[in-house]
Amino acid sequence: MKQTFIAEQVFDGERFHQQLPISVEDGQIVALDTVKGAVETQLPGTLVPGFIDVQVNGGGGILLNTDCTVAGIEAIGQAHAQYGTTGYLPTLITDNVEVMQHAADAVAQAVAKGSAGVLGVHFEGPHLSIPKKGVHPQSHIRRISDAELAIFSRDDLGTKVVTLAPENVSVDVIKALVAADVRVCLGHSNADYDTVVAALEAGATGFTHLYNAMSPLSSRDPGMVGAAIESQDAWCGLIVDGHHVHPAAAKVAIAAKPQGKVMLVTDAMPPVGMPENATFELFGIEVVRQGDKLNAVTGELAGCVLDMIGAVNNTVNMLGLPFEEALRMAALYPAEFIGHQQRGLLKVGSQADMVLLNQQRQVEQTYIGGKIVFQK
Predict the structure, then answer these.
(1) Total-model pTM
(2) CATH of the domain at 44
(3) Which are the contacts of 246, defined by CB distance < 8 A and separation ≥ 6?
(4) Which of 267, 292, 307, 353 is catalytic?
């Protein structure tokens, strides 16, 4: 069926338009005009490209580590769709190899099934640095083995991202991962500057939640933060919730990096989309929600209850960036990072992943492939 959506305002990923018709067929945008035989839908509000989140640990009461099923993955996606996420990487934090295998199998099934929004998988660990582990369980942090390499090398997982600490993974292994079509991100690391640069030269292309759980920038020791900000080519995920990164630090990174190399991520945990008082367990440790903040009872920040539209609005309100740049940080730039050139823009040939926002910049409707997956 052909559909034409006519919103009061459209942001196509580059600029705003008034009353721009978007015609969709078979999940793709086929014309920026009305087309013969299409069903027309008037949309009150602003239509923007769907958001892409490359770090989603959970949502809707589900944590991927404890529910490695297609149903669990889809429940996470449904929770985030109400906040404008149309593409995401279910993210498994550090765990044993059996759980990694179960998660990979579930993601492969979801990808094969065409589960709405599932673009691949992000393995955040287990090859991390113990001094920068955060809430990742130390008992499962380990050197890489053939068992993990076999999982990372699978070709049925969609887009693959692996976060690792380069002081604990050799440049030869990083090169092997890149050759296996893995996007290597650096994070949860105490590496020095030279080790990080060597990992970038070996093919690493991203940094996981910039500033958090990584060696800091100082005058004589640039650390991972310094290498990340200096790099002209690597993408940096940024958690803009006001807790993980001070607004001034976020603004410094955005000013220093080339435009397009800082993307918004949520690092979301199960309470996203759940009642305010929702708590959960993470490897036997209780995690408590206090407003928009998650802390383990042991004190550490334990992921986020941030959602993508929240991150967009925080980027405008806390960091002072233009609304259109915040939208690009949530859609276009992560699409470019994971190599999904048909996403992040509302152009002819793009997938019809779209979000309708009201005047308060809150989500009214979410579409994936032209099909509505959330309506307020």
Answers:
(1) 0.97
(2) 2.30.40.10
(3) none
(4) 267
